[in-house]
Amino acid sequence: MAAVLLLVMGGAPAAAEVYRTCAAEFVLRPSTPRLEEARSAAFSAVGRHAADDVAARRDARHRLEVCARDHWADPHADAAPASCGGGGPRTPGLIDYPLANLLRDATALSCAANPGVDDIWIDIQIHVRGGEGCTPPPDFWAIDLGRGVRIHCPQPATIVPLPRLERLPEQPRTIAPQPELRPVAGPPMPGVRLPGHDIGGEWLGMDGTWRDCLELCRDTDGCNAWTYRRPGTTPGRDEAGCLLKSRAGERVSDTCCHSGIME
User: Fold this and answer.
1) Domains assigned to the chain
2) Region 47-55: what's the mean pLDDT?
3) 240 — phi, psi (to 5°)?
4) pTM > 0.70: yes or no
């Protein structure tokens, strides 16, 4: 009888906390129908609730809305606000948020999707997808940041030929021998990340550079592109990293990285 009384007094065990995720991406829609919309790399938000799946997803969506509000409040800042990060498998917050300087990165995405266009008027949205709580029926939830935002796409300058100069007579001089230089496959794409198509990678330590990543790709069979991550930009790791890829695929503006394509 004493054992039965103890069970009754103890009650049912407490329910474990629930963590659920909503997927998201930036969608940059031009006002002119003939122009192409641009999309960012995918990211996600993790929400938490004491016991309910739907409530946990609503919490994740709310975190996306707070991030959008905070970032739009200072769209020229060089880094995203703290509310746009901090997430993990069992940590509420955002994971892999793709933009740093919001207007600069949105401009780069839209201009890359519409080469040769000088000015574009765009609507900036975050599209949210997931189970009940992430979105109302039937498909996705759109968070509007800015409507009718004008962006300017810089165009390549026209090169004007220089006048021909008369060649001066050769002057005798001593030429010191120069060290042999290895040809570089091509300059990196600064501030660009190439998501997907990974065939391998290595951690490069705190002093690793994008040149180390290029050399690693050159020495790896099947490597046709690479992305170098600066120290401190990979969650959970302090050192620099190198991702080797079978092909380049999508180009995403991201201050964490430099990338290159082998020729």
Assistant:
1) 17-152 (no CATH), 189-261 (3.50.4.10)
2) 94
3) -75, 155
4) no
